[in-house]
Amino acid sequence: MPFALSVTPAAEVSAGFGADALLVPETGRVFAGAGTRLICYCRDDGRWWRQWEHDLEAGGVWALARHGEMIVMGAELELGAW
Questions:
Q1: How far apart are CA 10 and CA 21, in angstroms?
Q2: Which end of the chain has fewer beta carbons closer than 10 Å to its terminal beta carbon, N or C?
Q3: If we measure between CA atoms, which residue out of 27, 6, 22, 5 comes closest to residue 73?
Q4: What are the Cα distances from residue 45, in Å, to 1, 26, 30, 56, 77?
Q5: Which residue has the higher pLDDT, 12 or 54?
Q6: Radius of gyration over alpha carbons of the chain, in Å?
Q7: Long-range contacts of 25-31 (CB under 8 A, 24+ apart)
Q8: Which of 14, 5, 24, 18 has the alpha carbon at shortest distance from 72?
Q9: How far separated are the first and last CA of the chain, in Å rounded?
Q10: What is the separation of C-alpha 37 from the centre of its chain, rounded to a whole number of angstroms?
Q11: Are 42 and 48 in contact (CB under 8 A)?
Q12: What count of Cα atoms within 13 Å lies in the side-chain half-sphere of residue 32?
């Protein structure tokens, strides 16, 4: 089933930090990062809901990428993997 994801930067987004999203279709997850916030959405029974949210201590999300079974988030001062 097609869907639309809209990622809009919040007020805390500073110059140089945009927004990024990564869909992992086989797990029903969407990772969305904007500014200092990273959010994971989960699809269950045809509905999307927010599974978790992470606020970075400083800096902002640079990119989200998939490497095999790992999801990697690169930020100015943090690196995360799920």
A1: 15
A2: N
A3: 22
A4: 12, 14, 15, 30, 36
A5: 54
A6: 13
A7: 29/71, 30/5, 31/64, 31/71, 31/73, 31/82
A8: 24
A9: 25
A10: 8
A11: yes
A12: 15
The string over 23-55, giving b where at least 16 C-beta atoms fall within 10 Å of a residue's C-beta and e elsewhere, is: beeeeebbbbbbbbbbbbbebeeeeeeeeeebe
- Contact between 19 and 30 (Cβ < 8 Å): no
Q: Are 17 and 59 in contact (CB under 8 A)?
A: yes
Question: Which of 81, 74, 78, 82 lies closest to 18, judged by CA?
Answer: 74
Nearby residues of 54 by Cβ (< 8 Å), 6 or more positions away: 37, 38, 39, 80
- Residue 47 vs residue 3, higher pLDDT: 47
